[in-house]
Structure formats: C-alpha cells, structure tokens
Amino acid sequence: MKEIGIQDVEHVAMLARLELSDEEKHAMTAQLRDILHYVAKLNELDTDAVEPTAHILPMHNVQRPDERRPSLDAEAVLQNAPKRTGDLFQVPLVVE
Fold first, then answer.
1. At CB < 8 A and 24+ separation, what contacts does 75-82 make?
2. How far is CA 7 from the centre of its chain?
3. Fewest beta carbons within 10 Å, which of 7, 42, 46, 47?
4. pLDDT at residue 80, rounded to an integer
C-alpha cells in the first residue's frame, strides 16, 4: 500500500479547491494515513460468505398508500399568505 504524503494531500486539496495551511496539511496527512490503514485492515477480513446488501436492516415501502382525500380549504391555506389576490398567492415579479 502506498503511503500518503503531503503531495497527495495538496493534490486532493487542489482538486477540492481547498486552501490548507501547512499545519492542516500535516494533520490531514496523518488522518488520511490512519483512514487508509483502517481500510486495509478491513480488506483483510474474509467476507466470502457475507451476502452483499445495500442496507443492514430489511427495507420495506415506508410511504403511505396513495388514496383520494379532500384538498385543503383555499381560505385556510391563504390565511397566512403575506399578500393575496382573490384565491391566489401574490408574489413579487421575478421575470420582466
């Protein structure tokens, strides 16, 4: 495994358009090195018998059923409108 150096941190910082001080570069170098060592350690695990999953818990449809219901009353909806014209919200002009 290639060791992470200051040049690698500077390259990633340039790609991310980040300006790092020398102190931050040294800190990020150590942090990235630790992260990569941890990932390398995880890669040593035998996961051949582990089924790939997207979630650790079983997923089910969490959306409510689509059912027909009466809509909100226009007067109740418009009560908190800053400005209104009849049964419509009045908004500032954004296109000339």
1. none
2. 28
3. 46
4. 86
